[in-house]
Amino acid sequence: MAIAVHPGATVGTAERSVEGTSTLWHAYTVLLGATCVMVGVYWDISWHMSIGRDTFWTPAHLFIQAGGLIAGLSSGYVALHTTFRGTEAERAATVSFWGFRAPLGAWICIWGCGAMLTSAPFDNWWHNAYGLDVRIISPPHAVLALGIFAICVGAMLLTLAQQNRADDAMRRRLAWVLAGAGGLFIMNFALFLTEYSERRMMHSAFFYQVVAVVFPFALTAMSRAIKLRWPATAATAAYTAIMLLLMWIIQLFPATPKLGPIYQHITHMVTLSFPLLLLVPAICIDIVLRRFGDRWKTYQLAPLVGIVFVLAFLVVQWPFATFLVTNPLARGWFFNADNFVYWMSPTYEAMTYRFDPPRIGAPPFAVDMLVAIAIASVSAAAGLVRGRWMTRVQR
Amino acid sequence: MRRLGALLLAVALTVVETAHVGSPNVLFDGSAGAYPVRVIVRPPLVVPGLAEVIVRTTAADVQRIVIQPVFWRTGVAGAPRGDDMSPVAGQSGTFTGQLWLMARGSYSVYVDVHGARGDGRVIVPVNSVATGRLGLSPGLTTVLVALGLVLFAGLVTIVRAAVGESLVAPGAAFEPAPRRRANVVAIVAVPALALILFGGAKWWSAVDAEYRQSMFRAPAVDPFVGANGQTLRLVVRDTSPYRAILSAVAPDHGKMMHLFLVRWPSMDAFAHLHPAQTDSLVFVTTAPDLPAGDYRLFGDIVLENGTSLTVSNTVALAEAAHSTPSDSDDAWTSNVVAVPARNNAVAPMGGGHGYRLAWAGGDSALPAHSPLDLRFIVVDSAGNPAQLEPYLGMAAHAVVLRDDGSVFIHLHPMGTVAATAQQVFKARDRGDTTARGRLRPEAFADSSMMPMSFTGALSFPYEFPRAGRYRIWVQAKPGREILTGAFDVEVR
User: Fold this and answer.
1) Among A102, A161, A346, B166, which is least packed, fewest CB within 10 Å?
2) pLDDT tens for each residue of B278-295
3) How is the beta sheet containing B86-87 ordered, strand by strand?
4) Which of B71, B134, B171 sits opposite A10 (nearest CB)?
């Protein structure tokens, strides 16, 4: 489809700012939808841990679906409105998609909503074919996670495009909103890695390697894209705050398992473990990019970010994990190190009071950490490229 | 794509193997306190999965029925609170409900009946194992493929927009050069995304393969005929990564194994034997005095955790010279005359005293997938119902076998469940499962409740799993002798 170009060729800064404000409601609505989805996902995992998924129609599931629909339908409305009734200025800030026009973030949200809806019959069939949620990470859950991820990305892009176009005052406001969306983005990765980031694994090299796959990418991209002094730090603070609030609030509600066998006789909602201490590596990445981001090339920056991320994370997470696993003070509502799911057998519970032994035949820990640094460097390179792209997004 | 097609085809083929050969559903007839009940449990194909439970009662004063899934390892203390069953509209005394079986292993459905005459409970043991794979229906396949293609095409379009038009300032022209670059990236994205999709398909294949590995496979039994054809030694072993034999074998009706031999394919010789356990999974019996030939063997065992298993194989028996039974409750017959089951049909039972087995199930073909009462009457030579002595604690035993051997079940008037499995669940929650380190379920049995004789009218609850021709053998003790009669039934 041919692109409708405003005859004026370029739009002035003031004009762009006004146009941005007019679609701000959509960015906020999608952010609300993304928040609903992520809160729903957390709540759903907690529901599985405490009550058991006895039906699809749990409130947590409905929250996720509602969030997806809010993001998808509002974006659908924007696409239809812009395509058929949009002003030239509105149409000018959109991209073409199969003959329709909407901002890129809206299309990603619609795609995410479609992926979430597709995952529903697939997941239902999967449960019937292979059993109910034998594992969190399954192909239909991956499709759902992709849909959720897309909605978070869409929420970020809708704000990002406006941030990149806005004047200084508006840009700062949007950057803070973007940091919130970035928090959801990081949370997405953190939740997907739940099965690989249990407390007892936090002294194993594999845990650091898994973490190195995703977080350098996410933090570096944030650090580049968000127009704040401490961008990755702000987004990570949002992630930490959301995770802590959900962890502390949800466990206030009473709950007993509806499914069995029950090994842990819980009386309240069990929530996920204390969030990963990503704040420290995020601060370090912000410092590195502020000092070297403009001068160094990607291939120089990426290894530096990789080293900084792994070392900073190792330095804080390792001793914190020791505290969580071994110190009785960690077992309470604040640090939540006694968040045993109802199906956790006594044998497994005993395993949570010590760290997993190293894998038989595993290379020395230092060698594995070098591997983690290499992984983190590749991840950071991808994040730098994505971050640069994010700074250029206009529509 | 071909791999995905092959996977879909493979998945579409559903395999069912159950603890009782080809007969997964559980039926129990008995009493919950003062209330007569029939309990039907249809376990799920996969675990965790939903079991369907139906309870029927003729008592008019039942107010409420609660069902609870109890896992062997955790007992009642580790079971979720029970669910109220729903009365079925228009069918008085019928209640339905569903229960999640979340773990693999030995379960029981506890059925608590509440009514005007107080409360009563029955325990219905169920094996919770993954026995099948679900196929993708053509409709669902079409929907998923269509949605998948839309998502794929949408993603390529998004990639094109992300590297192209989205980077153009609002109102600025989308120049040919960046447009060309965006098109190139979109074209490159197609194989890249296809590769990711292919990775997803491989992942699915791996999950499917792992699932098949963990599916239930009945343990095998290796028969060895020894001592000039006079003894039969059976060695039972697990056959798959999913271990079915997780605890010791427990006696059921006082016997460590109930072994059935059926001459194959003529089905004209039949034996019900009780091999002695010589080692944990080794059983030995005297070979029955049956004609030489090929026999299908089916051995029923119950484990101390309440699991009921049937092991099966074929064995070639040599002519045994006037063997004496190694167990006083062994019985065999070499000239079974099976009679087609129709109204007033009567089958001979042998034994020389004129006892016969009358079919009391009517004329019509029996329906599959529907709970039935298989009714018989043991009559004496004058045609009157005979009085029966208990045979292994029961009024009678029945064996149902499909003519291709794919369905086998050993029934009692109380249904398909093993009494021992019920007892071990009761004992498990009392906390006195063992005596000298070994479960002694017979010690729990309340023998004072056992009637000294039964009427000749027999009823076996059963649900045929599929259509076909079946033979039913019924064994009872109208005198001092164990006699066998047989009918052939058509199931549609």
Assistant:
1) A346
2) 999 999 999 888 999 999
3) B26-32, B35-42, B49-57, B94-101, B86-87
4) B171
Query: Domain spanning B336-492 has what CATH number?
Result: 2.60.40.1930
What is the CA A75 to chain-centroid distance, rounded?
Answer: 20
B174, A19: Cβ pair inside 8 Å?
A: no
Tokens read off for B316: 């070639």
The C-alpha atoms of residue A239 and residue A179 are separated, in whole angstroms, by 9
- B122/B419 Cα distance (integer angstroms): 11
DSSP A315-364: HHHHHHHHHHHH-GGGSSTTT-TT---TT--HHHHHHTTSPPPPPTTPPP
Topology of B26-128 in CATH? Immunoglobulin-like (2.60.40)
Residue A176 and residue A167: Cα distance in Å, rounded?
A: 14
**Contacting residues of A for B151, CB less than 8 Å apart:** 111, 114-115, 118
Q: Which fold has domain B218-333?
A: Immunoglobulin-like (2.60.40)
| Residues linked to residue B263 through DSSP beta bridges, in sequence order | B295
Its pTM stands at 0.85
Helix axes A139-165, A59-85, angle to 10 degrees: 50
Indicate if B336-492 has the same CATH topology as B218-333.
yes
By Cβ distance, the residue of A5, A118, A257 closest to B151 is: A118
- Residue B439's DSSP bridge partners are B434
Q: Can you tell me whether residue A251 is helix, strand or coil?
A: coil
Secondary structure of residue A109 in the 3-state scheme: helix
A219/A277 Cα distance (integer angstroms) = 13
Q: How many CB atoms lie within 10 A of CB B356?
A: 20
| C-beta separation of A371 from A205 below 8 A | yes
Flag whether the ipTM exceeds 0.85. Answer: yes
Q: Which of B4, B68, B102, B196 to mutate to test the interface with A (most CBs of A within 10 A)?
A: B102
Contacts of A304 (CB under 8 A, 6+ apart): A288, A292, A296
Contacts B171 to A, Cβ<8 Å: 5-6, 8-11, 89, 92
Tokens 């842990």 found at: A264
Give the model's confidence band at B432: pLDDT under 50 very low, under 70 low, under 90 confident, else very high.
low
Nearest CA in chain B to A115: B151
Q: Where are the domains of chain B?
A: 2-11+142-214, 26-128, 218-333, 336-492
Residues of chain A whose pLDDT is less than 50? Answer: 1-21
* Centroid of chain to Cα B383: 36
Q: Chain A contact for B276, CB < 8 A?
A: no
* Per-residue pLDDT at B359: 94
